[in-house]
Amino acid sequence: MNEPAASPILRASGLSIHFGALRAVDDVSFDVPRGGITSIIGPNGAGKSTLFNLLSGSLKPSAGAVRFDGTDITALPPARRLRRGLARSFQITNLFFELPVRENLRLACQYYEPRVKLWLPVARNTRAADRTEQLLESFGLGKRAATPAGALSHGEQRRLEIAVTLASQPKLLLLDEPTQGMSHGDTADTEKLIAALARDTTVLLIEHDVDLVMGLSNRVIVMAQGRKLTEGTPAQVRGNAEVQAAYFGDKP
Predict the structure, then answer these.
(1) What are phi and psi of 155, to 5 degrees?
(2) In a 3-state reduction of DSSP, which class is residue 199?
(3) CB 142 within 8 A of CB 173
């Protein structure tokens, strides 16, 4: 049974992970409200991607817990979290570069079909085919459907990767640095895309482009040296003296 709409879709409680003496994530707690965009920012080495690895199940915490949609998922592997509705993209593009765009999407869509339909011949799996065409249209990739993923521009590859993560129609989408390495034009297009995604899917975003974060986000979490420094609305975060000193480089 799903949690009430007013409850957070994700809750991290005291999450920590240590690698020897390094406290990569140290006692981090926060909620992600249902709907809209929550962003995580911080300097390089702040622990943002490690935190995503804990939330998605790629790493097991040394301490703390993760609840998703009202259920403790701390011990679940990534695949089971995915089936519950928590999807994650990565900083490094993760696609089948030799396969066409449509085939990358079709494989993802077919994988998320009910198990009884998983191994149906492609021609009979109409639901996966329909979802593939929807994603091609929604992400503006229709004209590139027959193009190998490896031949796409960097911006197009990132867009395709986000489309692949949405094949499962997740409740929560974790986006890790989606504009990394993009041109100004591709970044602007991706900003519009993320805003559109958030109308139907809750988004948790790690992003280095502070202006993009402040323009898109409903809530911002700031990390530094593995710990949560503060959180609040974009205006509250920008006005925080500790954030200005630790992240924006301003003196308090």
Answers:
(1) -65, -40
(2) coil
(3) no
- The per-type count for the chain, helices as H runs and strands as E runs, is 9, 10
Contact by Cβ (8 Å): 119, 205: no
Tell me how far apart the alpha carbons of residues 32 and 188 are, in angstroms, rounded to a whole number. Answer: 25
Q: pTM of this prediction? A: 0.88
Taking Cα atoms as reference points, which of 122, 111, 120, 164 lies closest to residue 141? 164
Q: What is the pLDDT along the chain (252 residues), one digit of tens a residue?
A: 455 557 999 999 999 999 988 999 999 999 999 999 999 999 889 999 999 999 999 999 999 999 999 999 999 999 899 989 999 987 556 789 999 999 999 988 886 665 545 555 555 567 888 899 999 999 999 999 999 999 999 889 989 999 999 988 999 999 999 998 888 988 999 999 999 999 999 999 999 899 999 999 999 999 999 999 999 999 999 999 988 887 666 554
Q: Which of 168, 57, 178 is nearest to 105 (CA)?
A: 168
The answer to whether 166 touches 86, Cβ cutoff 8 Å, is: no
Looking at the DSSP assignment, which residues form a beta bridge with residue 203?
Answer: 37, 173
Interatomic CA distance for residues 189 and 109, integer angstroms: 24
Q: What is d(CA 175, CA 79) in angstroms, rounded to the nearest whole number?
A: 17
The answer to whether 176 and 148 are in contact (CB under 8 A) is no
Give the rounded distance of the alpha carbon of 152 from its chain centre. 21
